[in-house]
Specification:
The chain is mainly alpha-helical and 226 residues long. The protein has one domain: Orthogonal Bundle (MetI-like fold), CATH 1.10.3720.10. Helices cover 79% and strands 0% of the residues. The chain is built from 9 helices and no strands. The radius of gyration is 21 Å and the shape is elongated. It holds the Pfam family BPD_transp_1. It is a multi-pass membrane protein. This is ABC transmembrane type-1 domain-containing protein. Keywords: Cell membrane, Membrane, Transmembrane, Transmembrane helix, Transport. It is found in: Cell membrane.
Length: 226
């Protein structure tokens, strides 16, 4: 019979504090990484769809480079490679945030680009016939429809990326996974600790998905997928 001792996780106040702080750090990183990554991703998607080679080729190269390398490699490059190249030293929290933003942006860019491709070209032509400029067409015609069409995919991608970010603990960022490893190294109850981490990540994922889905219904009340 398995001897489960979940109380070993709560018996020390510092264990509880580490878990709470880890949850807060993970949520903060995900919110900041998601927002900044989305802004970068939108810019990359626009650049990749441009007819200007100077914009299209670098953006496509960046997107494919990020999407075809592991997040942990990107994390180590940002945390240890960039400081060697540019001779600077950021806190690991800032480096982890930068790595997440770059990773998020590449995946978001491809999803947003798919949304652009799914907007009927005839609508842009009609807008030009009415005298709208290129920027107005993008901002008021193409972009709202594109984001509405791919919003569920953006939400799913965000949740998936959130579930893979426990590796930022490898560089010393005190996120939820780091807190779990801190506790397990001291009470030797790895099985119970990682059950708790699994439940915590599942609950956070459900929370993120629920909040983002409700936000999408508020932002795109006019859109209903057929």
């Amino acid at each position: 019979m398995i001897d489960l001792r979940f109380y070993e996780i709560w018996r020390e106040q510092i264990f509880v504090e580490k878990l709470i702080n880890g949850i807060g750090t993970s949520i903060l990183l995900m919110i900041l990484g998601g927002i900044i990554g989305f802004i970068f991703g939108l810019a990359l998607a626009t650049a990749r769809g441009s007819k200007i080679r100077f914009l299209r080729i670098p953006s496509a190269t960046f997107i494919e480079s990020v999407r075809n390398t592991p997040l942990i490699v990107q994390l180590f490059f940002v945390c240890f490679g960039l400081p060697m190249i540019f001779e600077y030293r950021w806190p690991f929290f800032a480096s982890a945030l930068l790595a997440l933003c770059l990773n998020f942006s590449a995946y978001y860019a491809e999803i947003i680009r798919a949304g652009f491709d799914n907007v009927e070209y005839g609508q842009s032509e009609a807008a030009r016939a009415l005298g709208l400029g290129k920027n107005d067409i993008l901002a008021y015609i193409v972009l709202p429809q594109a984001l509405a069409k791919v919003y569920p995919s953006l939400v799913s991608q965000f949740v998936f990326l959130f579930l893979t970010t426990g590796i930022i603990s490898e560089v010393g960022v005190e996120d939820l996974t780091w807190a779990g490893r801190y506790i397990a190294d001291r009470n030797f109850r790895d099985f119970e600790v990682f059950i708790v981490l699994t439940i915590a990540y599942a609950l956070l994922s459900v929370m993120f998905r629920g909040v983002l889905t409700a936000t999408g219904q508020l932002v795109f009340p006019w859109y209903r997928e057929k």
